[in-house]
Amino acid sequence: MYIEMDCPCKGKNLDKMLQPGILISLFHEDKYGYSIIRDLEENPMFDGTSPDKTGVYRYLKRMEASGYLVSRWEFEEDNNTPRKIYSITDKGRSCLSNWKATLLEYASSVADLVEKIDRTVAAG
Fold first, then answer.
1. Which of 71, 58, 81, 63 is nearest to 32 (CA)?
2. For the whole prediction, is pTM greater than 0.90?
3. Distance between CA atoms of 41 and 76, rounded to whole angstroms?
4. Which CATH architecture best describes the domain 8-123?
5. What is the per-residue pLDDT across 28-81, written as a single tens digit (0 to 9) for each?
6. Which strands make up the sheet holding 69-75, listed edge to edge?
7. Alpha-carbon span 76 to 74, nearest angstrom
8. % helix / strand / coil in the chain, to the nearest 5?
9. CA–CA separation, 65 vs 72, rounded Å?
10. Domain assignments of the chain as residue spans, ordered by start
């Protein structure tokens, strides 16, 4: 059986999982974009691959506009280069709790779907 590598059936088009990954990354500590991207690389949804950096920064901007994050500029001590530091808001914390409930429900639905696939394939 041939499966295209970029096919959604391979689970590679789950960009919506950026939001909970970013919220998890910022839950305990304010971070700049590159640090968030490194955290996302360790997220099981990315399977050790680096997410699209431009897409992550675009998503950070969208999340900030929606009130899930706030940002501020800080200067590095060694060369006065500014970098944007992101922080999670109360709305972002609430959103992460909602993600947990949604994903638990989704996991149950996926388990049911897998069971139906098994029955369908077994029936020939």
1. 71
2. no
3. 24
4. Orthogonal Bundle (1.10)
5. 999 999 999 999 998 888 777 888 899 999 999 999 999 999 999 998 777 778
6. 31-32, 82-88, 69-75
7. 7
8. 60, 15, 25
9. 14
10. 8-123
